[in-house]
Amino acid sequence: MSALIEIEGVTKRFGAIVAVDDVTLNIAEGEFFALLGPSGCGKTTLLRLLAGFETPNVGRIRIDGRDQTRVPPHRRPVNMVFQSYALFPHLSVRGNVEYGLKVAGVPPAERRRRVDEVLALVQLEGLADRMPDQLSGGQRQRVALARALVKRPRVVLLDEPLSALDAKLREELRFELSRLQHHLGLTFVMVTHDQDEALALATRCAVMHRGALVQVGTPAELYEFPASRLVAEFIGAVNLFEGRVITDAPDHAVIDLPGEGIRAWLDHGTGLPGVPRLWLAVRPEKMELHKRAGGRPAPRMEGTPPGHNVLAGTIREIAYLGSESVFDVELETGRRVRVIRPNLTHWDQEDFGRDEPVWLGWHAEAAVVLAR
Amino acid sequence: MRGRTDWRREAGPFLALIGLPLAWFLLLILVPLGAVWALSFAINTGVASIEVTGTLANYARTLEPTYLGILLKSLALAGLATLVSLGLGFPVALAIAFAPPPWRTPLLVAVTLPFWTNLLIRTYALMAVLRDEGLVNRVVAALAPDLAPLPLLYHDVAVVVGLVYVHLPFMVLPIFAALDRMDRSLIEASLDLGAGPLATIRHVVLPLAGPGIRAGVLLTFVPALGSYLVPDLLGGPGSQMIANVIERQFRRADDWPFGAALAFVLVYLTLLALALLAPRRPAARA
Ligand SMILES: Nc1ncnc2c1ncn2[C@@H]1O[C@H](COP(=O)(O)OP(=O)(O)OP(=O)(O)O)[C@@H](O)[C@H]1O
Ligand SMILES: [Mg+2]
Questions:
Q1: Whose alpha carbon is nearest atom 20 of ligand 1?
Q2: Which of B193, B196, B210 is facing A79, going by the closest CB pair?
Q3: What is the pLDDT of residues A239-288, one digit of tens each?
Q4: DSSP readout, B164-175?
Q5: Which value does ipTM take for this structure?
Q6: Chain A: nearest CA to B190, how far in angstroms?
Q7: Which domains, ranges and CATH numbers included, belong to chain B?
Q8: CB distance A73–B203 less than 8 Å?
């Protein structure tokens, strides 16, 4: 399948600021693609380049095989859902949604039918005659969505579509976005700085940093196999340990963690030959806690020889989140490690208490090695 | 609304605050205006005596063809000047609102620059531009030496040009304010939905600038309708406006009751324009 959107070596500068830095990216038809990254990394600028509100200094943008680099926004086969929704305040819900059809010269009867259809799709049937200032935030969001969908664009661009809503509504609309995209088979490109949103919705994500793409992949790839500390830390929480390679065989590797005074065992090679210094990344939910009080010996971690992948520590803080508990564990060196345990039974949360001495460890396959 | 002082419950400080301006307004505006209004229902009983009889004869006279004609002409000239001002002012306001930020203040100052000179001086300056040996005609002569000088001055054209010149800032500024307040992403949304720049101006910019346009039209039309100096200095014998006639009644003709009636016809027209164009409070919404 060839790409619907092809971004080739695009750079956009504002004076001395390089907002988008040599980005090359292909997005296929039917994808729900998320652009993820910290504030100011250039996500909105990249989206605006696709919409035609900005023109790249260098590079080309093709949509559906046609060069769009210098095509003005009103002639591009894309529609955008704005962060602030940008609903026309002088037009009713119907007026807003049919605007794009009206300026395209669609006859009134068909216009009416299509607007009713798309309003039903976003569950706003009864509200066609309301004015935007008579709507709740969630309803406005749906109107903005309906307005972008009614023209059946090749690509729908969404700039932080859910960021203005409260947590509950955000979750509700998250499912709805996903349902709509799937149902209509459209290509969505969404900007967000909310990693949960990106993981939950996207079929593929790109992580941006200082205008450049640092990693592109499925949510699971980004979470389970981040390519750098930056991505590992940006997507989800992570514990990072600095280390040196002792053994690097195809089926296992041993890494010395001088800071922690232990060795780590991996059930695979590092894949990073000749890299002297690297980092071991372990997600909090992939760590386990064991009792240490009363001189209990260190447990042996699955897939490792004794004494590997285990650290002594003391629980300092516990955050009970209902479905899981988050533990802040202090190592003997004073550094803090985060561990997440699911609360599988009613009583799991009582297993460990504050200031309790614990062993913490991880399986041979739980860690990821990072060169950067 | 909670947290906001309700003047009905705390009338003391409120009255203290507006007492003086209110007294000023009553004494110096409403009282003289009331006196002139009363005069419009009076008759001249002697050389220097006037009696308020409640007669409508003065108003009846304003409907005589001479005066009605001048009134209609005034409406036409002020209306034309307002239209021209709108036609010039809207693009100017649009250009300033969308100019790069460092340009905006200088451009706004340039628009208001004429305010800083006296009206009389500005009007004389315009005469210098429009007269037979003026700037315009010298340029015309240079381009087409055979042509007779264009009779620009002492003509309706000169009056309209003068009215536009004087009132243009009143048109530009409120429209600029409305455009400046407008959310730019609305324009982008319109472009994004396939409307070209002109369609976007028509369907989004113009409606949203509506209150500013109404204010500009009002601020231009009302003073233009009552203009005295511009038609007096720039107009010919046929282009006098209602204010010139009123002045003549009060001074040369010494017919105060009729002058008062004419003046109040102007006031009634102004109130009518206000009622039609004044910004309305948005209707209370559910
Ligand atoms: N019109 C502009 N003029 C000058 N600088 C700009 C302009 N638009 C964006 N920038 C700069 O480009 C960089 C990227 O901005 P952008 O809005 O794309 O970031 P973002 O990733 O969307 O951030 P956020 O998450 O805060 O919305 C920022 O440093 C910003 O200040
Ligand atoms: Mg942004």
A1: A40
A2: B193
A3: 888 888 877 777 878 888 887 778 877 787 777 777 778 888 888 998 98
A4: HHHHHHHHHHHH
A5: 0.81
A6: 8
A7: 57-277 (1.10.3720.10)
A8: no
